[in-house]
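Notebook p. 47: complex prediction with zinc ion.
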Amino acid sequence: MRIVAGYSGRVSSVLFRNIGTLLSGYVEKPLMHADSVFVRDGVITEIGTQPEADTIVDVRGATLTPGLWDAHHHPYFGEYTPRAEGFNVVSRTVRSGTTTLVSAGPAHQPGIYLPSARLPNVQAHSRAPQSPQALARDAVGTQALAIVSAAAWQQERPMGVKCYAGTVIAETGLQPEHFRRMAAAGVQRLKFLRPLPSSAECQQMCEWARQAGMLVLTHTGGRALIQDTRSIRASLEILQPDVACHVNGGPTPPPLADVDWLVDETNCVLDLVFHGNMRIAQHVLRRVGERGELHRVVIGTDSPSAGGVNPGGVLRTVTLLANLTDMPPEVLLCMATGNTARGFRLPGGRIEVGQPADLVVWDPIDGSVTTDMLGCVAYGDMAVPGLVMIDGAIRMHGDPRAIDARRMPLVEAAWGFAVP
Ligand SMILES: [Zn+2]
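Predicted complex, C-alpha cells below:
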C-alpha cells in the first residue's frame, strides 16, 4: 500500500472509510449513520461495510456528501464563458465541489442578444425568421442550439463534470414534431424566457413538450412572459411550470404575492439562486418549511449573470442561507443535491446503493475555528473539498493552499502508483 497524492482516474473499486459525517441527499433524512461507502464501477454498491477495494480513501473524520448540483446554470461550450469572459470556469466549479450542472437554457451565446435599437417588436418577433443578427431567436435556431448544446456536453466534460444541457428556449413557431425530434436528441426541458406573443401558442407548447417527456421551466422575474397577459402571475397561471426558475430573482424576483402563489397554490419546484434576492430566498424557505415541503426547493447560481461567474456559488448560497435562516446546513445541502436530482427527474445527488458515485469529501478551510463541514457552514466559514469523485473517478485530491494538511484525505492504492 502506498499513499498517492494528485491521483486522478477511475478504478474498479473504492472504499471511503473513517467518515465522520455522511450526508444522504434526502431532505427527509439528511444524515446517515455509517462510516464507510463502497464504490464499484462508478456506482455506490455498499454503505456501512468495508469490503476489499482497489483503492482506499481514508477521509480522517471528514464529511462525505453527494457532489453539489447547480440547478440553474447557463452553459456555453466547454471551459469558456463568453458573457463573463471567464476561462476554466467548469474545472473551477468541479474543484469547488459542484459536480453536476442543469441548464436553464443556452441564453448567453454571442449574438443571441440584439442591440436594443434593433430589438424586434412583437409583430416582427412572431414572424420567423428574424434578422440575421438574432441568433437562435426563432423556432429553427432555438432547436439547433438546444440539440448542439445537449450533444456537446455529453462529449466535452471538463474534469468529468455532468452538465445536463438539453434545455430549449421557447420560441414562437415550435411544432409537435420539433419536440419529438428534440427529445430524441437529448433535450429534456422547455424553458420560457423571452416574452412570446400568444397564450394559446404557449399553452400548446407546454402540452407538446410534456407529451415528449420534457419538463416545463419558466423564467420567474418581474415581467410577463407572454405578451397577451398582464403580468408574470398571469403568465405563470397559463404555463403551470414544473420548475419556477430563480423565484428569488434573476435579476429581480416577481412581486411577493406571486412568489406566495407559486409556493401555496402550485406544486412546482422552487429554484433559489446565488445571483438573486436573499430576502426573498429567506421568505421562500420559511414558507416551504411551514408547509412541510422542503423537497420542493433547489439551489443554483444563475451563472453567468451580470454578477459574473461563481464556481463556488452553490456552496456559498447554502452558507448564506444557513446564516440568514434557521434551516440546518444538512437540509440546505440536501436541497443542493438530492432535491435537484429528484426535481429534474435525474439520477444522482444521493448517497444510496445504485446511485452514481459523485462524491465530495469536505472539511473547514484551513484556519477556521470550526472542526467539521456542517459546523463550518453554520458558522459562515468556507468549507473546502479534500477530494472530488465523479462516476467513481477521483477528479481532484486536495488543495494544499486551502485545506489543513492534517485533514487531507489519504488515498491508498492497493496495486501501487497510479498515473495522474
Ligand atoms: Zn438564468
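Notes: The chain has two domains: 2-25+47-66+355-363+373-413, 68-111+130-343. Residues 139-155 form the longest helix (17 residues).
Next step: compare against the earlier run before touching the bench.
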